[in-house]
Amino acid sequence: MSLRKIMAAAALGGGLAMAPIAVSAADFSGKTVTIIVPFKEGGGASRYGRTWQPFLQQYLPGNPKVVVLNKPGGSSILGANYFQKQKGDGLTILTVSTSTLTSFLFGGNKVKYNPNSWKVVVANPLGTAFYARSDQTGIKNKGAKADVMALRKANLVFGAKNKTSAELRAFLAFDLLGYFPKPVFGLSTGKQRKAILRGELNINYDSAAKYNKSVTKWIKKGTVTPLMNLGLLLPSGKVVKDPYLGDETPSVAEAYEAVNGKKPSGVHWEVMKNFIAMGVSASKSMALPGDASKDVYDTYVATFKKIYKDPKFLDFIKKDMGKYPHSFGGDAQNIIKFATSMSPEGKKWMDAWLIKKFGK
Asked: For residue 13, is it left (φ>0), alpha (ψ between -120 and 50) or beta?
């Protein structure tokens, strides 16, 4: 009887006792793990990184000390460039956000990092909800077509960090629907939210969780009116309404169809789908340096899976980010790859679009 058959018989209860196979795992006893957040404190990416901090400290083998290092600059370029140089010993992990991915594609020669060279541990979808001030835009929540026609006539003002930050997904959606707000650059997400409440901006977007937590109360007061959601890109490539935002708003694809009588298509729409992947499907993620060993990577993936089963973590993350499923390991890696794999035709179109809309 061959050794292979003996092992198979034992596995099937054939009476041969076998010692358990040892599983190699990294151990971080006495070490300090640093979570790099390439943004300022207080924003969504910083909250996301800090959400994992105490749980990593609890669940990583050896219970290391876990600290958060905020390293903002250039829509995450500075912090991501810094992370690209780190060793894959498991002592450094990066919080990745939509801006990290958009800056990679369009940030120019300042970008010295490549998300596809990293080992992505976990990816968390997070939806995008749009709303506007009805007193300045004329929208009355009478359907997607009526809203779009009103917005085409309005003098729209929209805030953004810069021309290659996460807000690109909003500008692309607006342009797809036939209106383009005047951009006001230099505004963080929090400042954008405050500015629309003061009436300095009149159209805005937020994460689904923040929208449900804060914006809905402004809707009830009549300060703003809901418009649409960016949608959710399925593995099939189809874009559907965001499941966490309910049925009160259409997806951008549904809004387009309501106005034009046909589904969106063409290079603009294909680029839009890349940005839906970046802005929703891969909105937040955590990554190790590319030279992390298999033991380190597997240990982190297993650790994040354990954390995701912790009721305290689930309660915390759902309140802050909504009821979206995480992806781990290879699945998370594939999401990042899809989000940043724009076709040559799409990249050429997008580069020309950026110059046309915002200048060099």
From this structure: left
Rounded to 10 degrees, the C-alpha dihedral 276/196/48/86 comes to 80
Helix (H) or strand (E) holding 130: strand 128-132
- Alpha-carbon distance of 63 to 32, in angstroms, equals 9
CATH homologous superfamily, domain 128-279: Periplasmic binding protein-like II (3.40.190.10)
CATH 3.40.190.150 boundaries in the chain: 32-125+282-342
Q: What are phi and psi of 114, to 5 degrees?
A: -140, 105
C-alpha closest to that of 239 among 217, 265, 216: 265
Give the full edge-to-edge strand order of the sheet including 203-207: 203-207, 128-132, 225-229
Segment 304-348, tens digit of pLDDT:
999 999 999 988 887 777 777 788 999 999 889 988 888 999 999
Domain with CATH 3.40.190.10 in the chain: 128-279
Q: Token match 């990249």: residue?
A: 347
Longest dimension (CA), the chain: 83
Region 169-193 average pLDDT = 95
Record the tokens describing residue 216, joined without a space. Answer: 């809905």
CA 326, chain centre distance (Å): 11
SS3 content of the chain, % helix, strand, coil (to 5): 50, 15, 35
Amino acid identity of 68?
V
Q: Which CATH superfamily is domain 32-125+282-342 in?
A: Bordetella uptake gene, domain 1 (3.40.190.150)
Q: Which string of b and e fits 249-283 if b means at least 16 CB within 10 Å?
A: bbbbbbbbbbbeeeebeeebbbbbbbbbbbbbbbb
d(CA 143, CA 338): 32
Token pair for 163: 């021309």
What pLDDT band is residue 142 in, cutting at 50, 70 and 90? confident
Helices (H), 38-137: 44-59, 77-84, 98-106, 134-137
Q: What is the pTM of this model?
A: 0.79
Q: Of 150, 14, 34, 123, which Cα lies nearest the Cα of 86? A: 34
